[in-house]
Specification:
CATH superfamily of the largest domain: P-loop containing nucleotide triphosphate hydrolases
Largest sheet: 6 strands, mixed
Number of strands: 9
Low-confidence stretches: none
Structural class: alpha/beta
CATH class of the largest domain: Alpha Beta
Helix content: 25-40%
CATH architecture of the largest domain: 3-Layer(aba) Sandwich
Order of helices and strands: EEEHEEHHHHEHEHEEH
Mean pLDDT: 87
Shape: globular
Radius of gyration: 18 Å
Strand content: 15-25%
Distance between the termini: 37 Å
CATH topology of the largest domain: Rossmann fold
Number of helices: 8
């Protein structure tokens, strides 16, 4: 799949601000490369999800921020830890609900094709109460993929899963979001290293003060070594 570089976005904090959410952040910059996965990591309450909600258009962008490259025409998809499947709809209809909410024709073939990729085709007729947590997460992933968005925002989508299911979901994200522009929030250093083309750490210089973004590269040769380096960096943030 060709890498799409048209959708590069820059979010800069130009000055410290007052009032929520400006007071959460110190001057720094986040660059989101088109066609790549950018991962945000940091301590709880540092503002990772707030930044993601700004990019999703769900949180106002303060005047002390500069958002460049985000066109009004950009289609955005937002996947959270809570899969939020509608219990009265089947797996198939939950996956394809975006078209229904917009009043567009249902893409039956496209939905089934995506469910097939995620090994859910045989379960398309089932309801959320009849499937496992991992299957529900795959349904939510199908729903996100079917949006065919310019910008895909993933807010700790696998935090509640067991280790094996989580690893499988990571593999699916790596496979099916290849070449797409993704921003993902996680607390898991290994997940960040496995999925991220670029990793940003959001850390506070003073306890309780505003947090700044900084890049993480890591000198380790293996993912495990880089994850350990990132873990140590987070402990000091």
């Amino acid at each position: 799949m060709a890498i799409d570089h048209r959708h590069s976005i820059s979010l800069s904090v130009t000055a410290s601000g007052s009032g929520y959410p400006a007071d959460l952040f110190a001057p720094s910059q986040l660059t989101i490369a088109g066609g790549k996965t950018t991962v945000l990591v940091g301590a709880s309450g540092s503002g990772k999800s707030t930044l993601l909600r700004m990019l999703a258009g769900l949180e106002p962008v303060p005047g002390t921020f500069a958002l460049e490259g985000m066109q009004d025409s950009f289609k955005r998809a937002y996947m959270t830890q809570n899969v939020r499947l509608l219990p009265w709809l089947t797996v198939e209809r939950n996956a394809g609900i975006g078209n229904r909410l917009r009043g567009e024709a249902e893409d039956h073939e496209g939905v089934l094709k995506t469910l097939r990729k995620l090994n859910l085709e045989r379960d398309a007729h089932k309801y959320p109460s009849q499937i496992s947590g991992g299957m529900a997460q795959r349904t939510a992933l199908a729903r996100t993929l079917l949006e065919r968005a310019d910008l895909n925002l993933l807010d700790e989508p696998f935090a509640a899963l067991d280790a094996i299911t989580r690893r499988n979901m990571q593999d699916l994200v790596k496979q099916h979001f290849e070449g797409k522009t993704v921003v993902m929030v996680t607390h898991d250093p290994l997940e960040a290293v496995r999925l991220g083309h670029a990793i940003y750490v959001l850390s506070q210089t003073d306890a309780g003060g505003p947090a700044a973004l900084s890049t993480f590269n890591g000198a380790g040769r293996s993912p495990a070594e880089r994850a350990e380096e990132l873990f140590e960096r987070l402990q000091g943030s």
